[in-house]
Design goal:
By secondary structure, the protein is of the alpha+beta class. The protein has three helices and four strands.
Amino acid sequence: MSGASDEVRVVFVTAPDGATGGRIARSLVSERLAACVNLVPGVRSIYRWEGAVEEDDEVLLVIKTCGDRVEPLRERVLALHPYDVPEVLALPSAGGSEPYLEWVRKESRP
């Protein structure tokens, strides 16, 4: 059985546009902090910020990585992201195709 460091995680990050999302995604993959990042355009976010309800179009990054890569990935996103408080939510994966999970483990390692 694999340990927590080998558990595949799915990390959600929103970005203000496709160019910003693409820049963050390419950095994470090229630096082997993530095996894969999907950019999902057309996300409409409604949220409370500084006492007001805001609404913006965003791009959602769906990032696949390993448990022990989440913290350095989070730090890198914070360094690259234009938002004051970027969304970085890491969720455990449950099940999945073992060959795919093994690929994520391999490709998100230095």
